Amino acid sequence: MVYTFFGSPLQRKMASHIVGYPRMGPKRELKFALESFWDGKSSAEDLEKVATDLRASIWKQMADTGIKYIPSNTFSYYDQVLDTTAMLGAVPERYSWTGGEIGFSTYFSMARGNATVPAMEMTKWFDTNYHFIVPELGPNTKFSYSSHKAVNEYKEAKALGVDTVPVLIGPVSYLLLSKPAKGVEKSFPLLSLLNSILPVYKEVIAELKAAGATWIQFDEPTLVLDLDSHQLAAFSAAYTELEPALSGLDVLVEKYFADIPTESYKTLASLNSVTAYGFDLIRGAKTIDLVKSAGFPSGKYLFAGVVDGRNIWADDLAASLSALESLEAIVGKGKLVVSTSCSLMHTAVDLVNETKLDSEIKSWLAFAAQKVVEVNALAKALAGQKDGAYFAANAAAQASRRSSPRVTNEEVQKAAAALKGSDHRRATNVSARLDAQQKKLNLPVLPTTTIGSFPQTVELRRVRREYKANKISEEEYISAIKEEISKVVKIQEELDIDVLVHGEPERNDMVEYFGEQLSGFAFTANGWVQSYGSRCVKPPIIYGDVSRPHPMTVFWSKTAQSMTSRPMKGMLTGPVTILNWSFVRNDQPRFETCYQIALAIKKEVEDLEAAGIQVIQIDEAALREGLPLRKAEHAFYLDWAVHSFRITN
Fold it and tell me: Is the torsion defined by CA of 492, 493, 498, 500 positive or negative?
């Protein structure tokens, strides 16, 4: 049966595609359902009901909007790589799985651990703030078709009248993102398992074909990395082996997060079994030049990721349409599909829920739901059915953002532009600074300290919440925070810690706390993005030039220092972390925004020094992350961070 609420079956769909969509729901419905289930407060059936409703609403939204290529199997109860591990039956032995369809017990044990065994490792998904569960493989890993999720979700959508494109993590990327299991030599060649996992992929493909699928999407994001000839050969071998199974299907291979290197492009273009190529044209803008210079395979489709899947800015539709028209001249009429640059899971869900956001700033934004509309509008315009009113409104919003006085601060721009190479270097060498520090601080050879924050109790959160809601006075708030700082100082002195911290009881989040006190930042009420599992974060939005109107931490650091004779650290979040854990403006290079944040933090350092704080810690948590795509950029930022702050004098 075709459900008419998905629009008329006769409605002509333009060549539009969405790589993937957020899973948590507009109000984090999945998060709360998961945590209720984990706490034993609801049943598996309750959890499945929430998940089913979310999937249906997502498919309905895309179908009603007019998207032609709608993805399925991008929903996950925890992580898409873990879903692939379940599909392949690659369950580590410690979970005592005995075979059969993998259920919630084994699945969530792998994700979260249980009373007797730890969880599998979690790490960054490329240079995003999402984390995936790392597969643990070895020569003795047994593979079997153990989760029919991809086929079941395709059938589920089809029963609702929506023909979808099932999405699978590609076999080569799955292996390249894995690690040797415990007890296996670190040098174990993971790609040697390719022939062991391909039979499972063939089974999945066969079932999808039998269910009526006509397209299938393989996500192979590792194609944007610098792969060696052996790794590239694995792609050729994998898709050659799968070619008979894929016969009769249109096959899309998706890559995202960066430009595709020339050799990877050549390898991809040579695959006979692949019908279409999906490129991220936001973070891989040079890919267009590569397509022009290297040529595009005749008769193939290009899925052009022109709508940013990783940020919250409204697309410049006129600019994107111009780029699409240029690409269409290369790939051929009818062979270009408008798409997102990557899955929309990396952006917030729906701008409609931001009822308190400043109206001008809101007009500049597009969350996942709005980006679906943008993709369809571009596809229609490319097909000669341009919505003039929609494009005009978009152009007006773009012009408003460019001309808004709240975006540009001339003083900040001049300060950043005036930076010279010498500003990135300390005037004194390390040994001289160490001597000066030791004379002033008189610390032991191996001084002790802590990283910074102490546990945030329920009572502390209540105090902050009530102060923010004007339910308690400023005097009551300050008194409560001072009392907590005093406890923290006393604990450290009793433990004979050399350099103390104040515990940060006044802070909500290491980025949000500073963003709330810096100009150029905005905050949402429901702009949640999945970090891992049920964990969601609400990144600040950097919409304009960043400056520090007033000191941010000096009062609390001075207060804490007055409670002890020992050195009290000033605690600051560094510019690289603030940058990478925010939605960053896209109207200027990222390094310029990073410099502006760094200058603001530098002023805070100077004020802390003037207030008598002798040790200042700059937290750069983002620098610990696996960022394979942006090493040069982060080295550039680190150079600034290290050399621009006078940590102690």
Answer: positive
Average pLDDT of the chain to the nearest whole number: 93
Record the tokens describing residue 261, joined without a space.
Answer: 């290197």
Eight-class DSSP state of 506: T
296: tokens are 């595009």
- Check residue 1 and give its pLDDT: 33
Return the structure tokens found at 559: 């207060």
- The mean per-residue pLDDT over the stretch 409-428 comes to 88
Mean pLDDT along residues 502-515: 94
Among 122, 22, 10, 6, residue whose Cα is nearest residue 347: 22
CA distance 396 to 384: 22
Q: How far apart are CA 330 and CA 295, in angstroms?
A: 8
Q: Judge contact between 172 and 194, C-beta under 8 A.
A: yes
Distance CA 178, CA 175 (A): 5
Strands of the sheet containing 164-169, edge to edge, are 70-72, 164-169, 215-219, 250-254, 276-280, 301-307, 336-340
Structure token pair of residue 19? 């790589």
Question: For residues 501 and 489, what is the distance between their CA atoms, to the nearest angstrom?
Answer: 7
Looking at residue 625, what is its pLDDT? 59
Q: Are 24 and 75 in contact (CB under 8 A)?
A: no
pLDDT at residue number 640: 45
H or E stretch at 541: strand 541-547
Integer angstrom CA distances of residue 538 from 276, 360, 456: 34, 20, 18
Cα-based angle 628, 629, 630 (whole degrees, multiple of 5)? 100
Distance CA 42, CA 342 (A): 34
pLDDT computed for residue 420 by the predictor = 86
**How far, in Å, CA of 539 to CA of 313, rounded?**
13
Q: Residue 245: what residue type?
A: A
Give per-residue pLDDT as tens, 189-244: 999 999 999 999 999 999 999 999 999 999 999 999 999 999 999 999 999 999 99
Could you give the domains of the chain? 410-527+539-648 (3.20.20.210)
Strands 164-169 and 215-219: parallel
The total number of residues written for the chain in this structure: 649
What average pLDDT does range 376-395 have in this prediction? Answer: 97
Neighbours of 208 (CB within 10 A): 23
Q: Which amino acid is at 335?
A: K
Q: How far apart are CA 506 and CA 468, in angstroms?
A: 12
Which DSSP state fits 549?
Answer: S
CA angle at 532 for the pair 528 and 535, rounded to the nearest 5°: 50
Q: How far apart are alpha carbons 176 and 436 in whole angstroms?
A: 48
Looking at residues 520-528, what average pLDDT do you find?
96
- pLDDT at position 3 over 70: no
User: Read out DSSP for 265-281?
Assistant: HHHHHT-TT--EEEEES
